[in-house]
Amino acid sequence: MDFLQYAEPGLRDYILRNSLPEVYEALLIGLLIVCPKDPLLFLEEKIKELLRRKGSKTTLRLKGPNLLNWDMFVTDEFKRDLKHLVGSYLKQLFDPDPEPEEPPLIDDLEKAYLFYTNLLKRKCFWAWMKYRKEVQRIKAANKRNEAKALKHYSQRKLKLAFDTWAEWVKFRKWRAALAVKKIEHVSDQILLKNIFEAWVGAVKEAKRTREYFARLERGDLDDDSDTQLFGQGEAKDDVSSLPWQAAIKIFMFLGIIDLAHCSQVCQSWKVITQTSVLWNKMDFYPIKDWIKDNGVTYLLRQYRPYAIHLSLRSCTNLSWPSFKSVSECRNLQDLNLSGCAGLTVSTTFLLLFFFQFFLFLKVVPQYWSR
């Protein structure tokens, strides 16, 4: 132990007598290799173990079973991979004048230079990476702020445009409402004028219609009574030689079936039977028991423009075709359906639908069949 040559004699004797370097070496090696969780407790236990080995003796023996080795505090599981340490680090701890070290070799200098340059490059690279990340973060933040600013600016523009548009729409609505009021006023005036003119026209038309039907019922629309139906050379019988008005008066006493039969006698009688005044009043009551749909349909189809008064009272053999033909008589003023067994609710509604626009219509049903 060369490091003790510079120590004081008393201190050197004390260190050597108590084997302090070996004790320190064994404790430190055991502590560094085992690495216990509680180092103070480990040192305390190992010192107690040394005291037990020492017993009552004043010094530790360096030979025999109590030999103080450098690895005596290392457990067996660590001793397998442990190599013997050459020299001792205590010299560096206690040597006041260490020997000068040898100058480093060129290879060591190159390695140190490469290590330093690599370390410097690594530090520069990581500093550059940190700088790039910071720059990217700032750019991203600026981009987000720019997007927010653009969005805010766009919203402000939209709000301004919307407010302007809302004011314009409000003004246009006011103008449109004013125009609508004026148009409604003019339209109401025109409508009232048209309604009044239509009412006046309807009154005049109703008056003319009443006068027409009255004249038609009186027979004033036929030819003069002084004229004859045919000349002297064309007359075949006494009735044909009579004046027109006289012949009509005679035929007015005949019923519907008799008129139909007379129309088949000759040409002159056929012309007389086609006079409108003879078909103003059509009464089927005398033939109610045997008249059927085909007869009523035929007569109404031939003379429906002249029918003003129509009576189907107690005609039990009539059904839908007859009532449909009745609905086609647009000039009817008086209709008697009392006692018609074939009259139903739907048929009545049909007749009322077709006759709702005509004057002086009278429907007198006795009962309705279900």
From TrEMBL:
Pfam families: F-box-like (PF12937). Keywords: Membrane, Transmembrane, Transmembrane helix. The chain crosses the membrane at residues 341-361. Signal peptide: none annotated. Residues 236-282 form the F-box domain. InterPro entries: F-box-like_dom_sf, F-box_dom, LRR_dom_sf. This is F-box domain-containing protein.
